[in-house]
Fold these 3 entries.
Entry 1:
Amino acid sequence: MSTDAMVLVGNSKGGTLTTLHISDEQLVRVSEVGVGAGCSTFAVDHARGLLYVATAEPSPAIVTLRIDREQGRHQEVSRRPVEDALVYLDVSPRGHMLLAASYHGGWGASYRVLDGVVGEESARLESRNMHAALFDPTGHNAYFVSLGDDRIAQFATTVDGGLAELSEPFVHATPGTGPRHLVFSPDSNHAYLLTEFTGEAIHFDRGESGRLTRREEVRAFDVTRGLHTSSFGVDPIAGHLVWGADLALAAGGRWLLCTERTESTVGAIAVGADGTLRGPVVITDTETQPRGLTVSPEGEHVVVVGERSGHASLYRIYDDGHLVLQSQLETGAGPNWVRFL
């Protein structure tokens, strides 16, 4: 990993962004910038040096910041008010579109972007407890994951920055599983979904039109620890229930990493050359309530943040799927989103 690698952490309760520098596999604090409580998601436009950050206070908004890679003093460029707090943002590869998901508002939307300024909505989708909104790596398609309706909405992106439904508008998950986050293979041919209530990693093939076709699934948590299936509205900690959170591909796509918050683990699932998920799952204990994780560009390092621990941990992933801790550092209150800059 490059010695000048930088990581950004969103501290939702603290209302801050913490910038970390990685040198010799050690995390070093660079800066902390206040953006407002509820900064629980952000999207990084690497090519244009911009951040799109969701905040809930003083009122829900999407804040554009220009990245300062030297001192971490990211500067505000613009602010777009939105109706409800957001839980997911993603920017298109060309930087001309932004997708957003609102869990409590029950909607997803797309916005046109010009020079970092987020414009008016270009499309909107209503669905219960929307939890993710993202482009595939080519930017040809957009997907919205609804935890409450147990489905993924599929769209093609249009030349004018809009969305057009595919011939099959939705991919339906098993009722009550709670689809949460989605990630794509680098070649865009495969997608992987993590469910919150059952902790399953589900593999989809992605066709030429962008249509997702379900293949196999693997339980992404430690099945020996007595966790039971969860459901909407219950306390997963009190009931010792499955509480899936985030996922990412590592090691050149050879491992799919999934976090589970009740037992505070990262489960590593082997991925075959054909995209197939293969057990058994390799379990690593990690930060308390690991809501977010990210993988370095070269794929060999993983950063996990614990929304209850208030810390970030840096790991190296080995060929057998085990994560070995290299460094740990306090971030801020309630860290739940993390990305490499």
Note: Residues 135 and 142 are 4 Å apart (CA to CA).
Entry 2:
Amino acid sequence: MHCVTKVELSVCGSNLLDRDVASKSDPFCVLFHDVDGNWVELARTETAVNNLNPVFGVKFQVDYHFEEVQKLKFAMFDEDKCSTQLYEHDFLGEFTSLSIIVSNKNLHRPLILANGKPAGKGAITITAQELSDNRIITLTLCGRKLDKKDFFGKSDPYLEFHKQGDDGKWMMVHRTEVIKNTLDPVWKPFTVPLISLCNGDVDRNIKVLCYDYDNDGGHDFIGEFQTTVNKMSEAQNGVEVEFECINPKKQKKKSYKNSGVIIMKSCKVGIDFTASNGNAREPSSLHYINPMGSNEYLSAIWAVGQIIQDYDTDKMFPALGFGAQLPPDWKVSHEFAINFNPTNPFCSGVEGIVQAYSNCLPHIRFYGPTNFAPIINHVARFATQALQQDTAAQYFTLLIITDGVISDMDETRHAIVQAAKLPMSIIIIGVGNADFTAMEFLDGDSSALRSYTGEEAVRDIVQFVPFRDFRNAPKETLAKSVLAELPQQVTQYFKQRNLSPSNTMPE
């Protein structure tokens, strides 16, 4: 499974270098990503006029690939000319980051100049928000009788939307366009991810602030109000919802009523299907079941399962998945029953596994990272119970089918070294065209596998086979290669423990 998720990155700066003589810098941020060793621009924010501590309204949305090393660079520039060419603007510093951004959620780092020296006290803060909820919200707003703030004109109003975090702090999530010289603005409809606006919680507080835009960056505060998506959603089918725009400093005056009214003309919540990651209905997904009713996962299950099931008396197999978000709370699981019955994950024969797999796909969201250790330890618990019987009656084979680079290599190595002491073997089939170097390392054919503590596996229990080598070969060829080492691994284990097969035939 190819693990991709959409991530939204919010950027703000602090204590930026002041490059302008008569005023402060006019910073904007540019996001670059690494393409074959070259930095290529992905997107840029708006310009924050005359501001050394900008909070940018434009958000960066990037596809985050869990199994890949992704290099991103955030560069700050001071806008000097009306030009899109970056060399026309003064460089204020940059920060180069990897996936550490996502793991930290809120990252604060100093900016560095091109010569490697600190950019004064300049710093950048990057906040990552995973867009796992694919609902979107479209808002249409206008204002009426807003306060007049300009001496020679009316006001140039715009709105800022802020959500309240779990820590109680407010974070800006959207800024509208500026409507020039009016007290009755009509803003363009805009759409934002629901998770960006309120973390997917329709009852979470949202603060809306109204400002009068000034060219010198000293924007005048008009007023504010608080609401929720639930409240805004009342604006549907021609019904409008009004919010009084309040300036707290003016509220003390007896004659003060409000600083105008913000009207929610329309609020619509929908689902953005294009944001769904790893859609099994798309031909680009390895889980896509083609018109012939197959994919690489199913081919691997059939090829190996049809042979190995004959060595199981009741042909009841536990089938587990990992690296997916499960309903109803969409938490990530690295060890779940694909029949959604955790107390009885067993499937009847290969047909039962295939059926459970096909039924499971529409109800989960592919995710990551690719962690093997939980699944290995799960089977190892059963093998440990069998070990207590001190007979050669049971041996466990774990078949892992994956397309990913292992994320928990240290934990996986340790789990395999411990499992080598138990009556179990591990077969790994790699599907797709990923880099499977790590899988071959786990195979241990060239040298004994060691855990991160230095402990050596007492025997080789892993067999890895890349499916692509057998894509056009008869399925019997794949099965033969996959199962080649299994008989020796079984007999080696029981010989080491001086155990002989039971003479009792199963009924």
Note: The longest strand covers residues 118-130.
Entry 3:
Amino acid sequence: MPGFLDNNQIAQVGFIVRDIEESKRVFADFLGVPVPPTYDGGTYDITGTTVDGKPAPDANCFMAFFDVGPSTQIELIQPNGAKSTWQDFLDEHGEGIHHIAFQIKDMDIKINNFEKSGMKCIQRGKYGSGNGEYAYMDANKDMKCLIELLENY
């Protein structure tokens, strides 16, 4: 039976945190690994972030990643206070699991498939040097979490 993604391998579990430096230390101690570097979410001229379909030049975050399997990461995200799905989650729920991510191909087609099923794209943008794109799909009603789509170019 075909699914939404053409891939059922979880790429990432994302956590929203208030203090990324403290959270990195806690996760590193728990996993028994070195504390990873912190990355900035990037500048709007590269990310082109949209929130609820509108330009969101101030939406940003700090991130850190732990590799926990051959193709799976734990992502820690500290929002910067501007309107974003990250900040909304922190304001509404506090710290915790924000999303499950999957690597996909054909971002626009996948977003369209989700939206036809009533799962709206609530935030979208590029990452890195613009060599990849993410989209958060609101699957809370049916799946009780956000689904993040990740496509590398």
Note: The chain has one domain: 10-152.
